[in-house]
Amino acid sequence: MHAVQLRTGYKDVPISAPAGGTTPDGVAYTYEANDASVGDLDGDILGDWREEVVWRASGNTALRIYSTPIETTTKITTLLHDPMYRTGLAWQNTAYNQPPHTSFFIGNNMPTAPRPTVYTP
């Protein structure tokens, strides 16, 4: 079981790793991970602070990125600018897969997120 936050609170919903199959839009996918319990990669790769999961398509023809369709009004710097989160995203593919964590609190009533100390040209 996995708790999912909804607008009305928390709800337990069963989560199981798919063995592979077809998405609702008819695209075939394959599910494999180094620890057999999570997607190939999960994290904030699109830069809106919400996390996506990346799975490969059947036959290794494409990468499929799954994200939420729900809009947000919360604006913070992309999580990849946080050195702790960036390191956490990297260790997913080099060691036992654990979710990346930020160096600051993210949640209800959070203070303003710190300005990043990492800049890219």
How would you explain this protein's 3D organization?
The protein is globular, with a radius of gyration of 16 Å. The longest helix is centred in the C-terminal third of the chain and has 9 residues, at 83-91. It has one helix and seven strands. It has 121 residues and is mostly beta strands. It has a domain at 17-91. It has one helix spanning 83-91, and strands at 2-6, 9-13, 21-22, 28-30, 41-43, 52-57, 63-66. The strands form two sheets. Strands 3, 4, 5, 6 and 7 form a five-stranded antiparallel sheet that branches. Helices cover 7% and strands 23% of the residues. It holds the Pfam family RGL11_C. InterPro entries: RGL11, RGL11_C.
List the helices and strands and how they pair.
Layout: E1 2-6, E2 9-13, E3 21-22, E4 28-30, E5 41-43, E6 52-57, E7 63-66, H1 83-91
Antiparallel strand pairs: 1-2, 3-4, 4-6, 5-6, 6-7
